Structure formats: structure tokens, C-alpha cells
Amino acid sequence: MPGRFIPPDPSRGDPNTIGGYMAVHGRPAAFEGPDGYSYSVELTVDETGKRERPFGAFFLFMRWRRMGEQGVQGHLESDFLAFGESASEARDALGQWALNDVKRTLDGLVRERTDTMQGRRWWDAMREEE
Length: 130
Fold this sequence. Notes:
With 130 residues, this protein is α+β, with helices and mostly antiparallel strands. It contains four helices and five strands.
């Protein structure tokens, strides 16, 4: 399916927040992670199992392939970052996060995953001199 240009509609929200950006642009936001991969982000909600905070919202970052057929190669999930009495309340609260804070969250998750990986990434090994 070829891409299509949808002009932004600034009347739909604040484009500096993750929820506003998605509303204004009509698509998920995307970021480059510190590992060089592209990630798109979705605001996701689930039940917490806690009476005082029944719903929690978190970021789901999809990592896109760099080479070959276009598609998702993996994902990262944050912890619950916003809460509400309903799923929509929790999602709306998470949607108020500034884009810079979403990017910092992604960067932290990528670094955490990278620190726990065994071995070196191929591009790091290629940089080392023999």
C-alpha cells in the first residue's frame, strides 16, 4: 500500500504532546532510537489489578526492520506511566506526555535492553580496529 500525505490539522490538539501529535497528524509518532532503529509508538491501556488504580497506560514501541521487507522486527514496552478510573482516562493522561519525554522513555528502554544483550552488535564490531 503506497503512503499518502495527510495534511496536519492543528485544530485537533497540541502537537507537542504524544496524544496531540497523533491527533494532529492522523498517525502514530515515530522516533529513532539510540540503537539506530526506527520505532513507532502506540498508547496502550490494560487493567492493573489494583482497585485504587484500575487502568494503567503504557507506551508500546514497535521496532522496524532496517533491511529487507518492510515490517516490525521487535517491540519494547514501558511500565504503566499513567492511570485512570477508565481505560480512556488512563490513555488520555498518557497522551498529555511531551514528545521529548516519550523519546527519553524510548532511549532508556533501548539502553536497558542493549545493556542486557550478550555480545556486541555487528556495527560496533565493525568500528573496532584490528
